[in-house]
Every structure is written in structure tokens, then in C-alpha cells.
Design goal:
Number of strands: 2
Radius of gyration: 23 Å
Structural class: mainly alpha
Order of helices and strands: HHHHHHHHEHEHH
Strand order of the largest sheet: 1-2
Length: 332
């Protein structure tokens, strides 16, 4: 009897320690980086970033001078827009939801289907696309070259290189890399502030990394594996990455989005078909639409109402204080 009591006491002490050790190891996987990575051929400078910010918010980079990058990537909505589908040139609806530009310094490749290898390449895509900003790059260069203020800024940012396709893309990409989500309650918690998030959110974190299987794709500090998966969204029209690779397993496969500031970014998925975090979780619980290309990581998951609530509570801890974004004074 005495030995049984000792064993029970040991179990009471050891099991919580093991759980705490597991949680501590998980926390390490999600720690924020200390600095922003910039590529060797496009290093950061404050002048270059400021120029990129001007270009990001300048409607003169669209054919009709009525759209800019923030038309689809609005800082007030997690750098997306609160519509199922983005709207482009001539007010036409685009086929996909606008992805966020948050934390792009840690992302590659780009777009839902990964068609741009670098952020520099991505930055020009919407400008030149005839269904988005609809401005050929040579026309954009000519337009900017007529503006004295821009000539001065490009000379400061890129001495002796002038206004070109390369310098436009490098300036915008530099600014976009500085768009980083603010420190969130979750970050404070993994750094040791136990009261930074609720017990419900802590349980949600455990579920996220365990029973709910969310971390199979949403990994690292930005909560994305930077890979492409058919998540079984009920859309049989958009073939996703398959259009680039022609590989059967890439049919209906789309980039895993990061989850920072996720509660600001509804609606969700590549087609904006899921209007709330609750509907996203219900979708994953269902296992998605069965088809040959469905990711092997997708399978039905049984979660009760309390577990769903805890996961959503955790997801809300990934949003920090509102980012104050001042509009630049555009060159004349």
C-alpha cells in the first residue's frame, strides 16, 4: 500500500513536468526572429524603403490612376481587403481572395500559386496584370520619370541607376519586407509572461499542435510551411498550382497562408469562401472535399464546441496592437 502511494505521488509530479517540457519545446518553434532578412542583392536602406512606400500607395502606378497596392492590401484589414474576391481594373472581380503582405520577408515563393519566386518579382505582377493595375512596366517608368520628385528619390535610393523595372521592384519589395506584424499576446506568453493569454488560449495552442493537426501546415513564427496543399475547399474550378507545374498532385493546391493577425483578415481561403474562423475550423473538421489531389494531411477531425472555442481563442492571441501606418506625401 505504501509503495502504491509513492508511485501515485511520483506520477502526479512527473506527468505535469512532461507536459510542461513538451509545451516549452513547442514554444521554441514559434519564437519571433530578431531581425528582418533582406537578400544580398537588395539590402535595406531607409531611403529605399521610403521610396517603396510611396510607390505602394501611389495610384499613378495603375493605368487609370485609381488603384494602388493598398487597394488589395489594406493595413486596416490585416493587409488584405474584407471581400471574398479582390477587385481590379475596371472594377472587375478577380478570381481569388487578396493574400496578406504581412511578414513577406519570411515567405517564398509568392502568390496563392507560387508563380513569383521573389518578392521583387511579385511586386511587379499586379502593376502589369491587365486585370489588376493594368499598367505595362515601360509605361510606368515613363510616367514616374516625368515626376521630378520621383527622379530625385530614385537617385538617392539607387545612385546612377535611375528609374527602371529593377529599381521599382527593389524599392517596393524593400518596403514590403518592413511590413511585419506587431508583437502579440502569444509572443509575450512564449517569452515567459504566463498571464499574457487565457487558459482557454493555452489549451487552444495545445490542440493546434496536437489533436486539431493545424501545425501540420501552419508552422514556425509566421505559422506557415510555405508549401502548397489541396485543403479540400469546395471549388472545382480553380486548379491552383497545377496551372504552373502540370503535376496531378498540385491540382487545387494553394499556398499555406500565415496566421498572424488572422482575426483581421476575413473572409478566408484562396477563394474567400469561408466567412469566419468558426467556419474554417468546421471545414477542416469535415476533412474537406474528397478528390484525388486532396492533401494526405487532410482527414476528418472530431472537435467539440469547447475545443473549437479554445482554438479560436488561441488564434486571436496572434494579433498584436494595431499598426499605425501613416500615408506618405507623394512626389510631385
Amino acid at each position: 500500500m505504501k509503495y502504491c502511494l509513492i508511485i501515485k505521488l511520483l506520477l502526479i509530479l512527473v506527468i505535469p513536468f512532461n507536459i510542461l517540457a513538451d509545451i516549452s519545446a513547442l514554444k521554441e518553434q514559434y519564437k519571433r526572429p530578431n531581425s528582418i532578412p533582406f537578400p544580398a542583392d537588395n539590402q535595406y536602406s531607409a531611403t529605399k524603403a521610403m521610396l517603396g512606400k510611396m510607390l505602394f500607395f501611389d495610384p499613378r502606378l495603375s493605368k487609370d490612376e485609381n488603384l494602388n497596392c493598398s487597394s488589395c492590401h489594406n493595413p486596416s484589414f490585416g493587409w488584405e481587403v474584407p471581400r471574398a474576391k479582390a477587385v481590379g481594373a475596371q472594377a472587375q472581380e478577380l478570381p481569388r481572395h487578396a493574400p496578406t503582405v504581412l511578414n513577406m520577408a519570411w515567405v517564398e515563393p509568392f502568390f496563392w500559386d507560387g508563380r513569383a519566386a521573389t518578392l521583387e518579382e511579385q511586386s511587379l505582377g499586379p502593376i502589369e496584370s491587365n486585370v489588376e493595375m493594368n499598367l505595362p512596366i515601360q509605361e510606368a517608368i515613363q510616367r514616374l520619370s516625368k515626376i521630378e520628385g520621383y527622379r530625385d528619390w530614385f537617385e538617392k535610393a539607387f545612385p546612377s541607376k535611375g528609374i527602371s523595372k529593377e529599381t521599382i521592384s527593389k524599392a517596393i519589395a524593400t518596403y514590403e519586407r518592413t511590413i511585419v506584424s506587431s508583437q502579440a499576446p502569444f509572443d509575450l506568453w512564449i517569452n515567459g509572461e504566463e498571464d499574457a493569454i487565457s487558459d482557454s488560449a493555452k489549451n487552444g495552442f495545445t490542440l493546434f499542435n496536437g489533436k486539431a493537426q493545424c501545425a501540420a501546415c501552419h508552422t514556425g513564427w509566421n505559422f506557415t510551411d510555405n508549401k502548397f496543399h489541396d485543403a479540400g475547399v469546395f471549388d472545382n474550378v480553380d486548379l491552383g498550382r497545377y496551372e504552373l507545374t502540370k503535376q496531378e498532385y498540385d491540382k487545387h493546391a494553394f499556398k499555406t497562408p500565415g496566421l498572424r493577425n488572422i482575426n483581421e483578415r476575413a473572409p478566408y481561403m484562396h477563394d474567400g469562401s469561408l466567412v469566419s474562423l468558426e467556419s474554417v475550423i468546421v471545414h477542416y473538421m469535415s476533412g474537406g472535399m474528397p478528390r484525388p489531389s486532396l492533401s494526405p494531411l487532410m482527414s476528418p477531425i472530431a472537435l467539440n464546441a469547447e475545443e473549437m472555442k479554445d482554438i479560436i481563442e488561441f488564434l486571436h492571441t496572434l494579433t498584436g496592437p494595431a499598426m499605425v501606418v501613416s500615408l506618405p506625401i507623394l512626389p510631385q
